[in-house]
Structures are given as C-alpha cells and as structure tokens.
Amino acid sequence: MLMSISSKKYGQGDSSYQAANKLPGITKLCEDFYHYMDLHPEARVIREMHPKDLTQSIEKLAFFISGWLNGPRIYQKNMV
C-alpha cells in the first residue's frame, strides 16, 4: 500500500526527501543556493572557494542532501 506524502510526518522515512520533490527539487534548491552566492557580496569568500563552473559542486551538494533527507545515498555511492 502506498502512503501519500500528507500521511507521513517530516523526518520519518523518506518523507522529507519526498516533500523536497526528490532529486529534481533538491537540485533546484542547490542551483538557487549557488545563484544567491553569486549575487550577494557577503558570500564572496565562500563562493571563491568553488570553481567557476558550478556543475559538479551543485551535483555533489544535491547528492549529499538527498542522503541527508533519507533519500537515496547517492553521494556515498558516487563521490567517496
């Protein structure tokens, strides 16, 4: 039997991962995060620690957050 997201509580199982719209939603969040780092001078020092091309940084962060939200452990499988 499938449970809907609304019947699960945040933090139980993969409900937080599901609520974030799985990997596509998490990837969008990471893209937005780095976009705002580019816009705000306060983030300049940390942004400069990353490469100009953020493709791999976005992917790594999205993979890490996926596992952190009890979704697939993609980071551990692909990045370590």
Polypeptide structure, described:
With 80 residues, the chain is mainly alpha-helical. The protein has a single domain, classed as Globins (Globin-like, Orthogonal Bundle), CATH 1.10.490.10. It is built from 5 helices and no strands.
Summary of the model, kept short:
By secondary structure, the protein is an all-alpha fold. 57% of the residues lie in helices and 0% in strands.
Structural features:
5 helices, mainly alpha, 80 residues, Globin-like
Pairing-aware structural class of the strands and helices? mainly alpha
CATH domain topology: Globin-like
Query: What proportion of the residues form beta strands (DSSP E)?
Result: under 5%
Q: What is the makeup of the main sheet?
A: none
- 3D shape: elongated
Approximate helicity band? 55-70%
SSE order and pairing:
Layout lengths: L14 H5 L2 H18 L4 H4 L7 H14 L5 H5 L2
